[in-house]
Each structure stands twice: as structure tokens, then as C-alpha cells.
Amino acid sequence: MTRILLVRHGEATKGPSIADPELTDLGRQQAGELARTLAPSRPLTLTSSPKTRARQTAQPLADIWQCPVNIESAVTELPSPEDVPLSKRGQWIRALLASDWDTQDERQLRWRMGILNYLLGLEEDTVIFCHFMVINSIVAHIRNDRRTQQFRPDYTSVTELQLTGGGLELIRLGAERDSRIL
């Protein structure tokens, strides 16, 4: 049995032209609070999306546990379609949230399968610092639910999974965000 904690990154700088935002002051505070909350448990393997906001969220816990953060591209942010410019990504994401996984293009489906394959291959208990859509894609898979959006994980919320007998089980959803803004 492998325990998997999916952590949504802390609050990041927003803007239609920021491709890889850093954490805001509040986001750094959230990362520190999360680290203090998880610190008393035994150290687990730490993995992060390559995106700056996820790495910055992981670092305070890595500092406390004195362990490295493995960077894993499989848990990076959902890729936009090739023809969607960064300035239109927010609009595209909002439309995506109201749709189903089976209506997405090949790029998004490959991304989703990559996350699933990565998680199914884990052999050690792991904390994964990732993104809103990573968490939603896995929860949808576990629930066998076509809807893209399953819930609105808050910043630094922890969704707990268990890998047993080759399958993923949802133990607990992370805290949900109140606002409609990602």
C-alpha cells in the first residue's frame, strides 16, 4: 500500500502574460503553514511539478525534513492546445472546467494518462506538489466520472490517495476553495 498526498501549490502571481508565476507573499505563507502541519509526520518522498509555484510550495517542507524535492514533469500543469496563446489560457481553462474529459484533444488526454501512469508506478509514500487540474484529473479517474472539474482544491490543500493492488483509491479530498477563481 502506497500513500500519495496531492498538494495544490500556494497562491501564485496572476496575469495573462505570466507563463510560470512565483508564489505571492500569501502563497509563501501558505507553503510555510503546510510545512509546519506536515512536519511532525515521518518524512515522505517529495515530488514537485517543474513549475516555479509548485517547487516553491515544496521547499519549506524539504527544508524541515532535510530531503530533496524530485522534479517530475508528469505532474506539471495541463497543457493548452497549440493554438491557444497564453493571453487566452484563462478563458480556455474556464471553458474546459465546464466540459468532460472525453471531449478533450489528444494533447490533454496524453497529459492525463501520463499522470495516471506515474502515480500507478509509485512505490514509496509520496507528497506531490502540483496543480488544480492534476488533482481534478485523478479524482475524475478514481470516480470514473467524465466531468473535468470534480471540486475546487484550495491553495495548499491536501488530497489523499492510496495505491493498492494496482489501483488508486480516494481517501480524502483536500479543502475546497470558496471563490470561483482558480
From TrEMBL:
Protein name: Broad specificity phosphatase PhoE
InterPro entries, sorted: His_Pase_superF_clade-1, His_PPase_superfam, PGM_Phosphatase
GO molecular function: phosphatase activity
Gene Ontology cellular-component annotations: cytoplasm
